[in-house]
Give the backbone structure.
Amino acid sequence: MLKRLTILLLVATAAVAEEPGPAVPGRFDGSALDRSVDPCMDFYQFACGGWRARTPIPPDQTRWGRFNELAERNREELHQILEQAKDAKRQRGAVEAKVGDYYASCMDEAGIEALGTKPIAPALARIEALASKRELFRLLGEHEAAGLPALFRFGSAPDLHDSNRTVANLGQGGIGLPDRDDYLKDDAKSKEKRAKYEEHVARTLSLLGDSPEAAARGAAAVLRLETALANAYLDRVALRDPKNRDNPMSLDELKRLTPAFEWDAYLAATGAPAFSQLNLSSRPYFEKADAVVAQTPLADWKTWLRWQVARAASPMLGKAFVDADYRFFREYLQGAREIEPRYKRCVQATDRALGDALGQLYVERTFGADGKARMQRMIEALTAAMREDIQAVSWMTAETKPRALAKLAAFGTSKVGYPDQWKDYSTVEVKRDDYLGNSLRAQVFEIRRAFARIDKPTDRTLWGMTPPTVNAYYQAANNEIVFPAGILQPPFFDKGMDDAVNYGGIGVVIGHEYTHGFDDQGSKFDASGNFENWWTEADRKAFDERTSCIADQYSGYVTLADPVNGDVHLNGRLTLGENTADNGGLKVAYLALQKALAGQPRRTLDGFTPEQRFFLGFANVWCQNVTDAAARQLAQTDPHSSGRFRVIGAVSNSAEFAQAFGCKAGQPMVRENACRAW
């Protein structure tokens, strides 16, 4: 049986008296509510103010919300599983022994410390021995095959125009800061970030044995090289447009496009199967990076490679490397005040490396068959509501609506909880005294699986998340929505709560993922998952006008007030897909709730009507606090809006919300020109 924990929600301040009746399924927690605020003035503060006031960000975290609380509970389940599994004296099955030994290798701090830099010494020696650009590309190929960092991303992905076929895919890479704009923007904070990064690179190179002077020169070379690569990058908004990622070509065409790249040497070293056709997800990157390859001295490439290897390995090396990595990437960039306890890092590392194996043990312990059944019923209800919503939209013509409905009918909805067939990790060697080696071998396992899919029929059984993950996703090539077991718990779904709260939680999540199939990206893929236009020109124009309204709305939100460096706004174009999905998901989940309530008495519980409880259940999911540093970084890199604006952005566009809480025109939660696509 899926473990259930009491959901934390809100108490009513509405004047409506609760009707007498039988015992109610669940009650709100009044401490989550800010009673001093009118919900029509600031619904996020009304719904989450009490929770936010009493729930500080833990010192080892950079943001903390209801997602994080659930993820922490799941981590503790995994922690208990792994603490048992690591005991080699117990009688363990093959799966338990594999994850237990991996976890044990991560927890062996003394053994890791004693090894020093020995785990990366062979890689560093190969870098030092480089004598030509051809050898550089051969080594880059070896790194790709060994799970070490490379200059670009190489793998496989469904053909954008034939989703039944998987092709080789190349994408931009090679930088160490979170975003290309970190290298290019000229504001004070960006300059400070680059200076801190250069200091961090120098500190890491010194840990490899460089003198202070050599480390400083090396760090300057790394920053110079990565800045040149960043100049070749497509930005995050441009990458959201499938047409920018659609660059099919032959291998011979790629060689002509990038004459400085030694492709034969690189590909031979990767061990990937031979192929003649591929896709570039960022053509400008390879065009411009070609000049970077040609003009950068080999000595700088060697320094950059040493840094890249050390950067990737630092979390798996001794304390000095771990601390240096934490101080820059967690403390400085995101505002953490303490490093996470070792066991938390090791739980997460095991989940990343052997997710299906650990997930199998997690599911056996926490997730019953009834969880899948309940979720499928919710999905069916949301499917019907989405169909009704598409049929009702006034801006789409009769010519395009049947195609939209056909895409909805083709949605895959069977991936709930966990895979039908688990990955077989029997070929992954795991040693209790080789944490870095274990990590690399697990990566190599996934790399080889990706290579094996090149020029093969697309495997539609693949999952993009592990079962304990607190998240869900829409996959355009498969035209499917996926819900790991980790999210099918309170506050998203609680069998002890009434339909209104559950539809506001997991119901909106389902509707959100459905709407992704019709957001600014998903809408460009047809029912078969192909990048093909199924819209009339007029309908596409009408849709783009509506999504532009949403983009402009969210770009106006200030996610971090900073009188010194300037306020930080959300990027409405970067977050457009998620914001469209939030607005659409809220609408269709509300429609589904109305159908579920049809013919039932409208009982007021805890002083709230079902409709009010629906919106409170939605807001409760997004209660969160975030550090200033993380808020700044997330605004630049995260395609999701912050919790506050996910709530008020969607409800202020919702006529149903205004009706539920009696909000009037002119109040902040009632937008004069409400945006709505779906």
About this structure: The CA atoms of residues 353 and 439 lie 6 Å apart. The chain has 28 helices and twelve strands.
